[in-house]
Structure formats: C-alpha cells, structure tokens
Amino acid sequence: MLYAMEEFPQLLEVVDRGFGNPANVEIALDYLRKSHGVERTKELAREHTDRAVKAIESLPYSDDKDVLTSRRALVDITERVITRTK
C-alpha cells in the first residue's frame, strides 16, 4: 500500500476515508493493481530473505545434528514466507 501511495498520492485520500464503504475497497484495489507496489514489496522481501539466509550461514560451524537441523529449518522458513500464496 505504501509503495502504491508513492505512485498514486490520491490513494491516501481513499485510505483516510476508511474501508467501511465497499467502493473505497475497490478503488484502493484498483490503485494497487495499477501500481508496482506488489512487485516492489516482493523484491524487498527477497532482499531481506537473502540477508537472513546469509546471516544464518555465517553462524559458526557445528556438526551437531540438532544445530544443523535447526539451521536448515530457519532457511526453509525464510524461503517459505516469501513463496507462500496465502
């Protein structure tokens, strides 16, 4: 929504009116669809995911099975968060 507002400042007026009126919801969704907000948000999420994975991988080495399993789970969670559809 914030990225969409950068592209379409008039969206702020719609948000300020609230979403109790279904017409405002449709107007806001229309602006969101027209904007690059979703793509920019996905790009930002990917950047943060990559940074998180690098941080996990930079932790001191351990051959402990539980540590290895936990690290793999952390990496899996970061990937799952940005690839989920719901």
From TrEMBL:
Which molecular function GO terms apply here?
metal ion binding; transferase activity
Q: Which UniProt keywords apply?
A: Isoprene biosynthesis, Magnesium, Metal-binding, Transferase
One GO biological process term is: quinone biosynthetic process
Presence of the UniProt keyword Electron transport in the record:
no
Tell me which InterPro entries the record gives: Isoprenoid_synthase_dom_sf
Is Transferase set as a keyword in this record?
Answer: yes
Requisite cofactors:
Mg(2+)
UniProt record similarity statement = Belongs to the FPP/GGPP synthase family.
Q: What is this protein called?
A: Solanesyl diphosphate synthase 3 chloroplastic/mitochondrial
Origin species, per record, is Zea mays (Maize)
- State the organism's lineage: Eukaryota, Viridiplantae, Streptophyta, Embryophyta, Tracheophyta
